[in-house]
What we know:
By secondary structure, the chain is mainly alpha-helical. The chain has two domains: 194 residues, no CATH class; 31 residues, no CATH class. 63% of the residues lie in helices and 2% in strands. The protein is built from ten helices and two strands, in the order H-H-H-H-H-H-H-H-H-E-E-H. A two-stranded antiparallel sheet has the order 1-2. Helix 3 packs antiparallel against helix 5. The radius of gyration is 23 Å and the shape is globular. About 2% of the residues have low confidence. Keywords: Cell membrane, Membrane, Transmembrane, Transmembrane helix. This is TRIC cation channel family protein.
Amino acid sequence: MSTLITALTTPDVGFGSFKFTGEHTMFDLIAAGTNALNGALLARRPDHFRNFTIIGIMLMALIGGIGGGVSRDVLLGEIPSAFTNSAFIVLCLVCGLVGYCVSFARGQLFREGLFQFMTSLSLPWYTIVGVSKASEHDIPVLGAIAIGVIGPTAGRYIIDVSCGVTPKQFIRGELFVTTAILTSIAWLIADAAGAGNLWSALIAFAFGFAFRLTALYRGWEEPLASVPKGVYLHEDKRPLLGRKLKGKSETELRMLGLDPDQH
């Protein structure tokens, strides 16, 4: 106990700093706050809600807010800024509380619209911070684009997996990943043209935000992959393919719920 008290009273141990500007901090905070709001809203959506407690929803907000930034910083070999700047966690919890308090029974379309709008807002910001940080570490173009994609999407991946939902990165999602890729490319082009950090960020954000909103409004989607030939799902969701179907009679195929004419 005395050791704990000594550690807590040591000047080097405290609540950390609260920084809001400098070294991408403002952009990072904007993205973290909006993603935290998104995390709470997402946890309340019928397709994601799993009888979460209030603490559970706040954790979803925190994961959504800092999950992508932490993943990005770890990949770049940095101590995540979310753990050294207390403003990140406080902001995420506040935004999570706001998301939780948004009415669930009333204004369903408004809340869903708010979620989509805030996603469109945070996606390019997190992308810009990721690709710019990667460039500062002299990461090659393709690697920088990959970091630009991981930053804004990792938090959503964790939330989807936690809710037992197929991650949005792998299914149709109004060009979710494509928006991050194109925003990264827009920033790289602007930076290579000598626009400077601020203008490169503003140009890339304007492009990414407009592209995402347009994709949502117009219903743009990635093309679906073709269904592999010879793959059929049985009632237990296990695939029946190749040798498992070979030699079966038409009666056996029909008992499996398959059409013999397709074999």
